[in-house]
């Protein structure tokens, strides 16, 4: 199991590898910028996101408005920054929920033989639903709101994590020291907490990064379709949805929120790839 | 041969269990609706009498287990219920919209595979070159692009700007088939390009895997031509992961189709689902979810069976 | 209506007549891009704009609206004979009219249809409350006996009160058979509704004016195609896919104009946008706070954001637009540039405690959403806290029915033939506008018999509306639609109609 390799790797060498991977570094830098901008939005954004200025509507990008203004004369740059907050909040929530659910299901399936078959079949069933479609149905059932979108996507992506966790757990439980721990009669929860969960950290981290990316794309799609979060704060998806009307006369309404999505998702994918390479050097060798 | 038949039976059983779970999950999703679904469906003008009538018609007054039983029984008889808004059976509504979705999915997968296989193979063979690096970068970027955004840009450039393709729709009542397909070009490209990214990466990885294997080295050592080595020996063995990922991609394409159909105004299943959400037409959402999931399970089954054909070593 | 509007309409009408003189039944097809799929074709059940638009080709009412929004005969043979006390209306019916299924139109069909209308339609239910009896008077006349005077009767008989063959009437309509110039051929939900020319059509006489006058089915076929996305309608129109595209975003005006393939058409004063307030529960039951809302808002900025250019809207405090018979400045108050100080004072008087106003809007119509965004900014400037809830239309209509769930919702309506058919005037319409001074003002209107008396009574109603503030009138908007080049004879109306329209050769 390669997980162990990465954990036992000296910190300094890990750091060197982290920065040796230029793509990953690039991803990390973008992500830091996006997160920092979102966290510091009130200080970074030149204008309030909902500040109207009807006279200045649909102005192209300029020195005063880097990304131009929208149909209300609001500053698109500022809005894009604030929208990042919602997108990150939703995606983080999704990652949290799917990780918790995924770890519980995955460990249960991987560690307890009797639970494996039923849980695995349930995961198969859940994974038969295309992500957006399942999320749409859940949002429709629960009513659209920030919480339901997080919940719906969290449930949707939980099986992805559960599968990875199950796989890793299956391998772990065959390892001599865990078998030894079982034989010694250590309480199951202690074995799980001390030995299993700790060793699952790396594969979970990798998969969570990808779920983060998927959640971001899915949230944008739901918002674009008008079945997403409904707040009076902008999201990238809703910005795209309203910018659509001005595609001809003011393409900047569509270009910048779209680029924001692309770069954020790209940064996560690069990061996830890099992490996987760190965790699984066999793959690293190949790329 | 008997082993294959046995494997077939075993996987059929597994598929049945998964399908049963899918049905249950769908049933649960629709039942978690807060409040009275009948009231929500009828909207603001409904009288309490109207609501009571619909509750009865939908069988909402029956105990949950009985409702579940009836739901399952209906499905076994091919009855997915009645659309509230469209006032027609859900199966009819779905059937009427199957064509655009089917062809959209088919074309996108053809486009995706058409790009991914050659590019992925070449990228693996020329590993480490500029070409390889460009491919790796591009696939990364493509996987980060929301397909609806790409769709909007394609509309802007090729439909609005150049006028080569219609911006939306699927033609009228008497539009010839060929013309309808013309409507599908842009959406299929939008969807196909985005989805080619994943397949390309998998193809590349799978090829890299087998190119390092002994038998490929042996084939090379024996003096087999490079093209022959790649196509006959390497690709054949790389096929299993590639088939898996193509199968998986079909499900992702259906998800992408939901959004893409809306962007391009295609009267497909995805569009129907989105409208159904806005119309609070729960039976339609439920039915679409069920059918799509069932198709996915079926595709998975077929992929499983393909493994056995491609690689007899697969554990049966 | 504005003078320019009248000129426009007259020109259009002239164009209509001149093409009528030349028009011949054509083999052409008119493809019409509409804003969405009708939930049903049963207009009595669901009298929304999209259903009314399609159904007016299939079904006809006893009366219809002319260019001044007065009710004039359609299936009726003439204006009703009204008794001295104003309680008995005898309506003569046209003879020789047939339904699409070949059966003859007579008084039995009228009583059967209108009884269903009074049972299922929301306006019909109101009428049912004052109708003593509805009977046939021979084969070609019907008689309404009323319990009390009811000035808007003819106006209500001009809209969703369509006449079907008595045999086809059922709780749930399955066959859509009417007397209109076009008959339903096929409806494929979410794809198209296909109408074909009804060769047995008998048209009323007279110069076409709004929906009234001679109707001629020129195109062989009309196809209504639901295209919910506005930009898609624009692109489809320009690419020649559609002959007519309804409700275009004003941002597309230039693009259509420059395309060379289609022309934008402006229909002035198509309707008015309003913010309706909840008078039954919540924050805004206090009159001071509703008046604070009035004072705080700036209608010009709201309309400017929503319609982008003053070619497409006008700001006018009178509920009815200039040029309309009902236009009046009576009672206008707190309608101006948005005065945060005065609003703040009213907020204080009303004891506002900082509870957020729940402002409901949807993106079904982008301008609703845009008005909401601007309103939020102005209300906040005045000291309100605002919880802007952008929901889909289905959620909005469900939620607004629940008096606990909202404080303001944004909507729009057309200018009806009779001012008292404005939704808000009904006690039960969401907002629940119940007030003694309103009841008195409306009673005066109902009793009025002459046009002058009605006008004076309407002045009184508008005055109490401004004082009670059940709604805030934002402004009037012009509708933009597009007609493909080569299509002639189209005359803009609130519900676009396609009789007298010649398709492309």
UniProtKB/TrEMBL annotation, chain A:
Location of the protein in the cell: Cell membrane
Name any Gene Ontology BP term: transmembrane transport
**TM region(s), chain numbering:** 23-45, 88-112, 132-158, 170-192, 204-229, 250-271
- Pinpoint the ABC transmembrane type-1 domain residues: 88-272
Q: Which GO terms describe its cellular component?
A: plasma membrane
UniProtKB keywords: Cell membrane, Membrane, Transmembrane, Transmembrane helix, Transport
Return the Pfam families for the record: BPD_transp_1, OppC_N
Q: Which domain of life is it from?
A: Bacteria
Q: Is Membrane found in the keyword set?
A: yes
In the bilayer, the protein is annotated as: Multi-pass membrane protein
**Entry's InterPro entries?**
BP-dependent_transpt_permease, MetI-like, MetI-like_sf, OppC_N
Which family is it part of? Belongs to the binding-protein-dependent transport system permease family.
The protein's matches in PANTHER family, at most eight in alphabetical order, are given as: OLIGOPEPTIDE TRANSPORT SYSTEM PERMEASE PROTEIN APPC, PEPTIDE ABC TRANSPORTER PERMEASE PROTEIN
Spell out the protein name for this chain: ABC transporter permease
This chain's source organism reads Aliirhizobium smilacinae
From TrEMBL, chain B:
Q: Which UniProt keywords apply?
A: Cell membrane, Membrane, Transmembrane, Transmembrane helix, Transport
Residues annotated as transmembrane: 12-32, 102-122, 134-161, 181-199, 238-264, 284-310
Which segments constitute the ABC transmembrane type-1 domain? 98-307
The record's subcellular locations are: Cell membrane
PANTHER family this protein is in? DIPEPTIDE TRANSPORT SYSTEM PERMEASE PROTEIN DPPB-RELATED (PTHR43163)
Q: What membrane topology is given?
A: Multi-pass membrane protein
**Cellular component GO terms held in the UniProt record:** plasma membrane
The organism's taxonomic lineage, starting at the top: Bacteria, Pseudomonadati, Pseudomonadota, Alphaproteobacteria, Hyphomicrobiales
Cell membrane is among the record's keywords: yes
Q: What is its main location?
A: membrane
Give the Pfam families listed for this entry: BPD_transp_1 (PF00528), BPD_transp_1_N (PF19300)
Q: Which InterPro entries match?
A: BPD_transp_1_N, MetI-like, MetI-like_sf
Indicate the family of this protein. Belongs to the binding-protein-dependent transport system permease family.
Report what the protein is called: ABC transporter permease
The biological processes this protein is annotated with in GO are: transmembrane transport
Q: Please name the CDD domains in this protein's record.
A: TM_PBP2 (cd06261)
TrEMBL record, chain C:
Q: Where is the signal peptide?
A: 1-23
Q: Which Gene3D superfamilies match?
A: Dipeptide-binding Protein, Domain 3, Periplasmic binding protein-like II
The UniProt GO MF terms for this protein read: peptide transmembrane transporter activity
Q: Which GO terms describe its biological process?
A: peptide transport
Protein's cellular compartments? Periplasm
This entry carries the following GO cellular component terms, namely: ATP-binding cassette (ABC) transporter complex; outer membrane-bounded periplasmic space
- Reply yes or no: does the keyword Signal apply: yes
Q: Which residues form the Solute-binding protein family domain?
A: 72-414
Reading the lineage from the top rank, the first entry is Bacteria
Q: Which UniProt keywords apply?
A: Signal
- One short Pfam family name for this protein? SBP_bac_5
PANTHER family reported in the protein's UniProt record: D,D-DIPEPTIDE-BINDING PERIPLASMIC PROTEIN DDPA-RELATED (PTHR30290:SF38), PERIPLASMIC BINDING COMPONENT OF ABC TRANSPORTER (PTHR30290)
The similarity comment for this entry is: Belongs to the bacterial solute-binding protein 5 family.
What is the name of this protein? ABC transporter substrate-binding protein
Q: What is the source species?
A: Aliirhizobium smilacinae
């Amino acid at each position: 199991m390669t997980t162990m390799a990465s954990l036992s790797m000296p910190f300094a060498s890990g750091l060197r590898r982290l920065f040796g991977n230029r793509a990953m570094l690039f991803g990390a830098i973008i992500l830091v910028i996006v997160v920092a901008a979102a966290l510091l939005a009130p200080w970074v954004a030149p204008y309030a996101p909902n500040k109207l200025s009807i006279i200045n509507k649909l102005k192209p990008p300029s020195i005063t408005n880097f990304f131009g203004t929208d149909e209300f004369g609001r500053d698109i740059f500022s809005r894009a920054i604030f929208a990042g907050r919602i997108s990150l909040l939703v995606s983080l929530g999704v990652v949290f929920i799917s990780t918790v659910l995924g770890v519980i299901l995955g460990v249960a399936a991987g560690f307890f033989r009797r639970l494996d078959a039923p849980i695995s079949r349930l995961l198969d069933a859940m994974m038969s639903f295309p992500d957006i479609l399942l999320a749409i149905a859940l949002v429709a059932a629960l009513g659209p709101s920030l919480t339901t979108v997080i919940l719906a996507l969290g449930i949707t992506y939980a099986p992805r994590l559960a599968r990875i966790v199950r796989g890793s757990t299956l391998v772990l439980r065959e390892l001599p020291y865990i078998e030894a721990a079982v034989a010694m009669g250590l309480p199951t929860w202690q074995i799980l907490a001390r030995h299993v969960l700790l060793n699952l950290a790396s594969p979970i981290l990798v998969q969570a990064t990808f779920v983060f990316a998927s959640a971001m794309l899915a949230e944008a799609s739901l918002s674009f379709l008008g079945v997403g979060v409904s707040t009076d704060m902008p999201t990238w998806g809703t910005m795209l949805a309203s910018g659509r009307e001005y595609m001809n006369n003011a393409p900047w309404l569509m270009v910048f929120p779209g680029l924001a999505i692309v770069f954020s998702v790209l940064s996560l994918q690069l990061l996830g790839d890099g992490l996987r390479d760190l965790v699984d050097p066999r793959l690293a060798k190949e790329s | 041969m008997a082993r294959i038949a046995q494997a077939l039976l075993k996987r059929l059983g597994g598929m049945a269990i998964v399908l049963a779970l899918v049905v249950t999950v769908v049933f649960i999703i629709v039942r978690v609706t807060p409040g009275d679904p009948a009231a929500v469906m009828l909207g603001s003008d409904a009288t309490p009498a109207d609501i009571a009538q619909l509750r009865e018609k939908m069988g909402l007054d029956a105990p949950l287990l009985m409702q579940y039983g009836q739901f399952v029984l209906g499905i076994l008889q091919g009855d997915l219920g009645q659309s509230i808004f469209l006032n027609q059976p859900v199966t009819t509504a779905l059937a009427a919209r199957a064509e655009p979705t089917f062809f959209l999915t088919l074309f996108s997968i053809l486009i995706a595979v058409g790009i991914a296989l050659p590019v992925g193979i070449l990228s693996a063979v020329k590993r480490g070159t500029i070409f390889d690096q460009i491919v790796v970068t591009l696939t990364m970027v493509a996987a980060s692009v929301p397909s609806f955004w790409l769709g909007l840009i394609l509309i802007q450039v090729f439909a609005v700007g150049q006028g080569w393709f219609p911006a939306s729709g699927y033609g009228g009542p008497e539009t010839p088939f060929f013309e309808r397909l013309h409507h599908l070009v842009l959406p299929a490209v939008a969807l196909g390009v985005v989805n080619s990214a994943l397949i390309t990466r998998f193809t590349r990885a799978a090829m890299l895997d087998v190119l390092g294997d002994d038998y490929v080295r042996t084939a090379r050592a024996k003096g087999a031509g490079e093209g022959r080595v790649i196509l006959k020996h390497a690709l054949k063995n790389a096929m299993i992961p590639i088939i898996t990922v193509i199968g998986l991609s079909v499900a992702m394409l259906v998800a992408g189709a939901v959004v893409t159909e809306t962007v391009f105004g295609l009267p497909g299943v995805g569009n129907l689902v989105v409208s159904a959400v806005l119309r609070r037409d729960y039976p339609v959402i439920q039915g679409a979810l069920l059918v799509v999931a069932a198709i996915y399970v079926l595709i998975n089954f077929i992929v499983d069976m393909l493994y056995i054909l491609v690689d007899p070593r697969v554990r049966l | 209506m504005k003078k320019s509007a009248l000129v426009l309409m007259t020109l259009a009408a002239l164009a209509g007549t001149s093409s009528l003189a030349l028009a011949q039944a054509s083999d052409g097809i008119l493809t019409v891009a509409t804003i969405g799929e009708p939930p049903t074709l049963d207009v009595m059940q669901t009298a929304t704009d999209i259903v009314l638009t399609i159904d007016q080709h299939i079904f006809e009412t006893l009366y219809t609206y002319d260019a001044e929004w007065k009710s004039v005969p359609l299936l009726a043979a003439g204006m009703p004979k009204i008794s001295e006390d104003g309680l008995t209306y005898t309506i003569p019916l046209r003879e020789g009219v047939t339904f699409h299924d070949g059966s003859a139109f007579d008084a039995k069909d009228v009583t059967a249809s209108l009884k269903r209308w009074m049972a299922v339609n929301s306006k019909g239910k109101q009428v049912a409350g004052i109708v003593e009896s509805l009977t046939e008077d021979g084969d070609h006349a019907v008689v309404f006996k009323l319990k009390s005077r009811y000035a808007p009767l003819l106006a209500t008989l001009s809209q969703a009160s369509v006449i079907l063959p008595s045999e086809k009437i059922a709780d749930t309509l399955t066959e859509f058979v009417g007397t209109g110039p076009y008959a339903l051929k096929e409806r494929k939900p979410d794809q198209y509704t296909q109408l074909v020319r009804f060769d047995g059509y008998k048209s009323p006489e007279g110069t076409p004016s709004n929906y009234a006058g001679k109707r001629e089915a020129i195109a062989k076929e009309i196809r209504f195609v639901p295209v919910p996305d506005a930009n898609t309608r624009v692109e489809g129109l320009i690419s020649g896919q559609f002959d007519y595209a309804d409700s275009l975003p004003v941002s597309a005006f230039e693009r259509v104009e420059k395309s060379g393939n289609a022309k934008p058409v402006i229909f002035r004063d198509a309707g008015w946008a309003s913010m309706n307030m909840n008078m039954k529960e919540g924050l805004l039951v206090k009159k001071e706070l509703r008046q604070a809302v009035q004072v705080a808002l700036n209608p010009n900025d709201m309309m400017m954001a929503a319609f982008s250019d003053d070619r497409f809207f006008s700001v006018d405090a009178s509920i009815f637009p200039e040029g309309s018979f009902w236009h009046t400045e009576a009672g206008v108050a707190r309608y101006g540039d948005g005065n945060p100080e005065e609003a703040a004072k009213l907020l204080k008087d009303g004891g506002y405690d900082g509870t957020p106003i729940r402002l409901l809007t949807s993106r079904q119509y982008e301008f609703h959403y845009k008005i909401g965004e601007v309103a939020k900014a102005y209300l906040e400037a005045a000291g309100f806290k605002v919880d802007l809830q952008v929901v889909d239309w289905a959620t909005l209509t469900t939620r607004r029915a629940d008096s606990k769930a909202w404080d303001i919702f944004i909507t729009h309506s057309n200018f009806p033939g009779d001012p008292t058919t404005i939704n808000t005037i009904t006690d039960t319409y969401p907002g629940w506008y119940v007030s003694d001074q309103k009841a008195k003002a409306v009673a005066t209107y109902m009793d009025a018999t002459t046009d002058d008396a009605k006008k004076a009574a309407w002045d009184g109603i508008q005055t109490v509306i401004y004082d009670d503030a059940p709604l805030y009138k934002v402004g009037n908007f012009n509708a933009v639609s597009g007609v493909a080049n080569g299509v002639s004879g189209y005359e803009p109306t609130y519900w676009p109609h396609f009789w007298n329209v010649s398709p492309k050769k």
